[in-house]
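Weekly modeling sync, notes
Attendees: S.R. (lead), two postdocs, one rotation student

Agenda item 3: backlog of single-chain predictions. S.R. asked that every request posted to the team notebook include the full sequence so nobody has to chase files. The rotation student volunteered to paste the first one in as an example of the format we agreed on. Action items at the bottom.

Example entry:
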Amino acid sequence: MTARSDRHGNRLHSRGGSVAALVGGAVLPLAFAPFGLFWIAPISVALLWLSWEDCDRRQAFRRGFVFGVAAFLFGTYWTFISIHEFGQAPVQLAGFLTLGLVAIMGLYYGLMGYASARWLGLSGPVAWFIALPGAWVLTEWLRGHLFSGFPWLSLGYSQTDTPLSSFAPVGGVFLISWVVALVGGCIAALVRGRGAVRLGGAAIAALVLAAGVGLDRLEWSEAEAPLEVALVQGAIPQEQKWLPSMLEPTRDRYLTLSGDHLDARLIVWPEAAIPALRHEEAEFLERAARELSEAGVGLIMGVVERDQTDGHYLNRMIAVGEAEGEYSKRHLVPFGEYFPVPDFVREWMRLMNLPYTDFVAGDRDQPPLRVDDIALAPSICYEDAFGREMLTFLPEAGLLVNASNDAWFGDSIAPHQHLQIARMRAIEAARPMLRATNTGVSAIIDHRGGIVQRSPQFEAHVLRASVRPRIGRTPYVFFSDGLALGLGLAAVFIGLLIGRPRPV
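Predicted structure, as returned to the notebook:
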């Protein structure tokens, strides 16, 4: 072969690897809700592993970056809808912020490729079965923690309806991500390996599936006496929600929908259910508390509260009637609830009539909400994307309660992805979850992540069920992300010790 034809062959090989990385990232969102093609997740990972074969550091960075950009461009395009259509940001600013987020997510996988090429190797059994799955878990963990964290599209969420979800009570969503990445390595071994490596890949995949089926037979918590609950979905369109003319109709809708369920023990309203500040609704809340107490009902509702001393806002859940407690959101959304920008940018936002006032985070150590003698673990909207946020209230809490407003994402895939994330929190804690949203998808979720009931989107609706709080402590509640993180670190360390694998 001449030097010219050899260069031509290398270019073709390079193009094929880049296409594999692009396709692998682009199809990854199909593994998650609402599509539910869970089997695509390990195939997507395998395409990335195979695209990295024989790469140098720069190529590995580029292909990892392409993979990440494609995955998040197609999987989180709804951030543009949230920022532009409902956040009222100009198209240019919304596009810049959306593409900026996508690029940052791509950098995680680009840097993972670069580091793996530099220190771990990118092909062979050590890379496929040990080093790369470990590096993936560390990358996901960092992505979920750095700069406030954005854990959306973590591989583990794709497996809520498969036996692999049974790893969640042991090590959380990141342990499932490791398992999926490992299966991706098995697929790469079947495609590119030989002899014993192929056989090893098939055997490991079979063992992973068998372990998932075995773990699925375990019960990590015990049921207690049932609690009658009603979840109210008001379905107030986001573009109308804060109009002054909608205050009275919104009150009436929630009161009417709740009035038919005063035989329940607990009623839950969504995030910021009533479009007014808490002090402005003091009379309404006092009247509601009195009437609910007389009926023997507890109500948990989302409210926005303004601190009268410093003018900052709090996103809160409060309990009235025969429920008690208050909770302030701790994990805020960048550019949604606070703006990490310099003062001159904030001044420009004010002049452009854009939102520019920050919410403030609640204290890290807050007590659970309560109804009767049952402790409830609260979370508000985006907080349920962070498994560690729930652990403060466990194992004391017998139920998880989430108040959300996914109207910010319109009729996109985001509300369905968010529901899938909430289901994972229930599996990790082995606790049912009550999830009340403004426009859907509201749901009652059992302790295994199964959907007992769900609401239609964009319709006023009430979910009614008898749920059983549960007691007990899963390994994940005890160790948090420590097991998955430790496994990832150990795998990367082994990769460093063994070094670049020999071709197979």
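Discussion: group reviewed the output briefly. DSSP finds 16 helices and 15 strands in the chain.
Action items: rotation student to repeat for the remaining queue; S.R. to check formatting next week.
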